[in-house]
Structure prediction request, 1221 residues.
Amino acid sequence: MYTSSELHRLVREHRPGWTLAQLFYTDRDIFEVEVERFLGPQWMVAGHVSEIPNHGDYFVFEALGASVIVVRAADGEIHALHNVCRHRGAKICEQPSGRASLLRCRYHGWSYRLDGQIAAWRHMPEHLNKSEHALRRCGVSIFEGLILVSLMPEKAPDPAVMLQHVRPYWSRYELAKTRTAAIRHYRLQGNWKLGIENNLECYHCLPSHPEYTTTNAFVRADEQTSETVVESFAAYRQSWEERMRAAGTLTGRSEMITTGGQPCRAGTWPLAPGKLTGSRDGQGVAPLLGRVGGYDESVTTGCIGFLSYMGAMCDHAVQVNYLPQSVDVTLVVLRWLVRADAVEGRDYDADNLCWLWDETTRQDKSIIELNAAGVGSRGYVPGPYSNLESMTQDFVDRYLKLMSEPA
Amino acid sequence: MYTSSELHRLVREHRPGWTLAQLFYTDRDIFEVEVERFLGPQWMVAGHVSEIPNHGDYFVFEALGASVIVVRAADGEIHALHNVCRHRGAKICEQPSGRASLLRCRYHGWSYRLDGQIAAWRHMPEHLNKSEHALRRCGVSIFEGLILVSLMPEKAPDPAVMLQHVRPYWSRYELAKTRTAAIRHYRLQGNWKLGIENNLECYHCLPSHPEYTTTNAFVRADEQTSETVVESFAAYRQSWEERMRAAGTLTGRSEMITTGGQPCRAGTWPLAPGKLTGSRDGQGVAPLLGRVGGYDESVTTGCIGFLSYMGAMCDHAVQVNYLPQSVDVTLVVLRWLVRADAVEGRDYDADNLCWLWDETTRQDKSIIELNAAGVGSRGYVPGPYSNLESMTQDFVDRYLKLMSEPA
Amino acid sequence: MYTSSELHRLVREHRPGWTLAQLFYTDRDIFEVEVERFLGPQWMVAGHVSEIPNHGDYFVFEALGASVIVVRAADGEIHALHNVCRHRGAKICEQPSGRASLLRCRYHGWSYRLDGQIAAWRHMPEHLNKSEHALRRCGVSIFEGLILVSLMPEKAPDPAVMLQHVRPYWSRYELAKTRTAAIRHYRLQGNWKLGIENNLECYHCLPSHPEYTTTNAFVRADEQTSETVVESFAAYRQSWEERMRAAGTLTGRSEMITTGGQPCRAGTWPLAPGKLTGSRDGQGVAPLLGRVGGYDESVTTGCIGFLSYMGAMCDHAVQVNYLPQSVDVTLVVLRWLVRADAVEGRDYDADNLCWLWDETTRQDKSIIELNAAGVGSRGYVPGPYSNLESMTQDFVDRYLKLMSEPA
Prediction:
């Protein structure tokens, strides 16, 4: 077990602007400290309300060693309940999703209502009070149709406060009026921080993501691949800003860091000239979202906490989650959202819709796993970040600050 | 490594009448403490004498990280010898069972007699004495044809003392005159204690074991599923007791707890009315055992130590063992015993014989593994036992007492 | 984590002439101490120069938790570079071997010259100096065409000093003028020391290696299987010595133990009468090596450090490496060397060439894994070495001395 003095030494020895020491990526005890200090409280996107439209619909959300039932009750409210019977601790829901009128433990038959309260038990001592044995609750909050879950809500910020400053960026997409068109899982053999470090920089985009680079003009501009590229991007960006301003659409970026270091960030940016959305040919792939009146070559991106990310284009949104399962396994879950009334086959084609981020995520999985293999090798030593990795560097700084605070 | 003070804290924090804290089910160091303190000494049923009828017959018994050769010597005596060469430590017997005149290590050719004494070695220093290098012996004892093995017999009770009070319950079955008709293995992904906790209560029988519940009348009676059921069971039980008394057959229950907390228990109970034995149709499946004169709708159950259990009906017996392999893997081994002269195909059908306990054990494996999944989850907290789980609760109390004693 | 006092106790409790305590074979922390103290510095044979004949040819060598690129640069020099990018730590070469003009990290596109110096990076802070971010170097040395690599060369002896006294035994084979005809890998489920202990004694040859025993006369002679065998071997050996002396060929044995306990040993011995080389029929399998003028029924054997071994016969050489991957997995790599101009199919048949040592290594894998299974069992206790295991005993003594020195 890592003593706090050993952990402090590791934190103290960190060289600012350089990557983390090996043990932060490989040590089981450090992972436990992370969960206790700040991962447990994180607000994570567990799903979208469209995935459980009816009373009794549920899915099971697994992260950080917990299994959570996310279920819609009769009154329409959504609950997040630990998937562990309060009797002897058996797992209750065995399937990844389903529909139920009661949550019933198969072992001894205890059953729970959809809000987690005990519906029935047999032969329990008289002095016990059913109300004290409800399924343990996680924090739940709905933001624009996204179901946020926190395993330790008492240590988490108020989501309303945390999200207020980013709401203006998302509102025109009316994500609450979308539905999940596709969900895909990618099992990452590597520590969760390697996933976040990857997500927060586009220094790797030019060498690793040809499709993403073609879709987003900033990559080549930031890379300064040529003076022409830089200048033409500046001109394009200026005209795009004017167009957006004329249409009354917010651009730029806003950020807030809340309790327990939970970041919340959003911003709206131009795609590449002529790209209406993230698709093979740059043309639309689904009906325009919400109050978006027409394709404006924009993308809105942002994060909710350390682990959940969003990207919305005019006709669909992509939602990305890094769900740590253990110190060296991270489940990456992507969901694609389209307008609630869009019909597959008629209004969109799922493979076409998923193309850009499925390709990009497969590429990321491949390079993050190379990263994990090298970081775990005896030859690894920390290295310096580039000028294009400032957000990754910022993440590492925040992470170390959280790890150095008194428990 | 768990320090004794940390372990003491865990024990002290236990709430009586509630399930154990998570670490007792998941921590490797706690498992090592269990082995040293009381699992190592346990008498376990390794097999039945009929499995090694002839001189040189052996099988390999694996539990608690040990591999043991159980072999019948020329004089008929059965020995239990660590399957580890005294030279460089190679495993000697590689097959699960076989026949041999000498136990020969394939590595350097040392050979041992069937009692473990060295038969031959080459080129050893003159000052070494062969007799000091015999295979290390485990404790062996035969009870009603069952071969009991203890890895640490010096810390174990005398089996004759331990078993004397249960012998009257078993004697009429003459298990020494049976033979093993079938052995089946079930690999349980879960801590051994979850297996024992399951075994010791029938609170789960109504929801989980339809076949068992139909065969055993007490389940619905204890559950008090209706007043009629309770009353008719009471009447049936009384008439059954009278019949048994008239026939001179012992009923009721006896128990003893010996050195190192090894429990030894037996009792005879009625099956359901009309059930001659544990079979699909309630009819007999094999020739009557021993001195059992006729079907009397009874079953005798009991345990030998924490890990081995027995159930005998008029025409066959089932023997169940929970063999811990590591903190989270338990091998469950069942053997079915029939009269020694019974011939498969003529006197019994193996599938019919095994039906009830094979079904029941598969069901138990499934619910115990759900239990293990939930108990290992971050959402687990201890819960309260029901009124129908008193023996499980008693097991947990004894377990904690053993874990809190000075090492 | 093993404290040094616990390790000292284990070392102090060792009984000279007996095998090691269980923890030395199973404890992860002890393995880490071994790597730090003396395994890391070991010179290991990573390959033969013929495997990377051209500029840009490389192979990846993996041992002790490190991944190393062994590559030939434009000037012909061979470099051994940690396969870990100095930026964020990604693994660079993904294939076991290949050809490249630059070593390019796929993640962010940093590229390195074949000597490890940075060829190109983008957008790095101005104050950073490329020369300080070259791939980390391992020690490399070439001995008779064998590429020696040390992960911690600063703690390793000078290979020229270490090897000077064995060079006379190897020189006539001109191994620098051979090429690798075959490489085979054997994954050993067992601690590396069990492999070395096996390698250093032939007490197991008579029971385990019929082919080896037939090829090498000393086995039966040392075993003293009969007086005739002993006497006829003595006579044969004397006449063989005379023949060798007449031909001016060195016989006998030389040894040196250098910094960090690295042994280096060689000796030339007779095969069995009539055996020209290690082959099925005892006849030659490939063109005579180097300056060897004719078959003289000899074999030259030796080691370089603890982990790499060699055996040369008149027409081919076999090179054996025990590459620890973790406390309980060891990769055994064999390479067969033939004269550089030998053509497969015309001058030798690969299966025939590999026969003796492939058979022998499979047999060894089987018995070493039995040994590992037994040594890891709860029943294991150290046992005494025989008179034919003096080199194994000597290895254990040296090992314990290294483990007891101040870190």
